[in-house]
Amino acid sequence: MFSIRLADLAQQLDADLHGDGELVISGVASMQSAQAGQITFLSNSRYREQLASCLASAVVLTAADLEYCPGAALVVKNPYLTYARMAQILDTTPPPAKDIAPSAVIDASAKLGNNVSVGANAVIEAGVELGDNVIIGAGCFVGKNTRIGAGTRLWANVSVYHEVQIGECCLIQSGTVIGADGFGYANDGGNWVKIPQLGTVVIGDRVEIGACTTIDRGALDNTLIGNGVIIDNQCQIAHNVVIGDNTAVAGGVIMAGSLKIGRYCMIGGASVINGHMEICDKVTVTGMGMVMRPITKPGVYSSGIPLQPNKTWRKTAALVMNIDEMSKRLKNIERKVGKD
Q1: What is the torsion angle, in degrees rounded to the nearest 10, for the CA atoms of residue 8, residue 13, residue 18 and residue 21?
Q2: 283 close to 262: Cβ distance less than 8 angstroms
Q3: For 126-155, how does the pLDDT look when each residue is reduced to its tens digit (9 = 90+)?
Q4: 31 vs 45, 48, 60, 70, CA distance in Å?
Q5: Sign (positive or negative) of CA dihedral 60, 246, 177, 236
Q6: Beta strand 16-18 with 72-75: parallel, antiparallel or unpaired?
Q7: 30 shares a domain with 164
Q8: Of the candidates 329, 338, 249, 328, the residue with the CA atom closest to the CA atom of residue 291
Q9: pLDDT above 90 (res 2)
Q10: 3-state SS assignment for residue 85
Q11: 74 and 173 inside one domain
Q12: Higher pLDDT pick, 305 / 4
């Protein structure tokens, strides 16, 4: 089990230490479940009364909450951000693979950098290039001429089609498919004629993609995912979508083809976004948003009706269904008032 002195942890986190720096920390836990030997964090002062009963060996908090902490503490400006960083330091997640498994199938023309690991039953096809410290999990498929940058990790059963480019220090979770055909067809008298998808997918550096997400290859030009983008589980990114740097996409989002999303956007879960349009930088779409038109100004956008008791919702739905008639009656009243 990995452990670290509290003083050393404080130094790595650039935190002010209050209390015994010789305490040994071996894990991170919530305030409610933390035990001796673990560290927790307080990011919302509303819960400061829980500090008195917290059993953690140390707490990460702000200077404003320090007086309420009876034990050792690390004082920082942003406890939640510090929690993310200390969780990385104390992370015990095993790597997706270690060394080259005997059952891995690696084409003789593939180029592997230093310290590459390939898991059991993974397939690495001809012309593939894997950078230093790349880890390919068990059962993965990496198609012809794909390039994967240094430090990138693929968990088990990821499928990466041919000619795909993935940058450095990316993390791709199990079941994700990158580079499958986009949904491109022409209609010939009621019969669908497939359009071969001749582009590819280009993914930047430090991108994280959740489990069972699909990113389609472009029809002619490429599907582009910028640096620092994070995409949650079970998302559908259609062909020729462009996602700008540091945009976050929550679970279950569907993006139609040829959509362009700017930088620093946040797309809420289960949102559906129309294709062939553009969303500017710094836009937030709240959960279950339906985006049918371009967004040209930064800000927060929402749509849909929040959950209501069924009886209330039925009344709301009835009003919505009659809104056209209500509008006509209002205009008639306005005309009559205007004449008077």
Answers
A1: -10
A2: yes
A3: 999 999 999 999 999 999 999 999 999 999
A4: 13, 10, 10, 14
A5: positive
A6: antiparallel
A7: no
A8: 249
A9: no
A10: helix
A11: no
A12: 4
Handedness of CA 109, 110, 111, 114 (dihedral sign): negative
CA gap 194, 200 in Å, rounded? 17
> Is 200 domain-assigned?
yes
Please say if the pLDDT value at position 340 is more than 70. Answer: no
CA 216 vs. chain centroid, Å, equals 17
Burial 243-280 (b: 16+ CB within 10 A, else e): bbbbbbbbbbbebbbbbbbbbebbbbbbbbbbeebebb
Q: Provide the domain limits for residue 156.
A: 105-301
How far apart CA 262 and CA 256 sit, in angstroms, is 15
Q: Is the dihedral of CA 103, 108, 109, 110 positive or negative?
A: positive
Same domain, 53 and 149: no
Give the CATH number of the domain where residue 240 resides: 2.160.10.10
Distance separating alpha carbons of residues 254 and 246, to the nearest angstrom: 18
Same domain, 71 and 145: no
- Residue 85 sits in the same domain as residue 109: no
Which of 172, 151, 188 has the alpha carbon at shortest distance from 237?
Answer: 172
Please report, for the domain that includes residue 9, its CATH number. Answer: 3.40.1390.10
Told to judge if 162 belongs to the known catalytic residues of this protein, a careful annotator would answer: no
Long-range contacts of 227-233 (CB under 8 A, 24+ apart): 227/167, 228/204, 229/204, 231/207, 232/269, 233/173
Q: Is there a domain that residue 238 lies in? A: yes
The total of other beta-carbon atoms located within 10 Å of residue 121's CB is: 15
If you search the block for the tokens 């976050």, which residue do you land on? 248
3-state secondary structure 102-118: CCCEECCCCEECCCCEE
CB 166 within 8 A of CB 148: yes
Burial label for 61, CB within 10 Å (0-12, 13-18, 19+), is buried
How many domains does the chain fold into? 3
Same domain, 121 and 165: yes
Tokens at 182, concatenated? 């986009």
DSSP code of residue 217: P
pTM here is 0.92
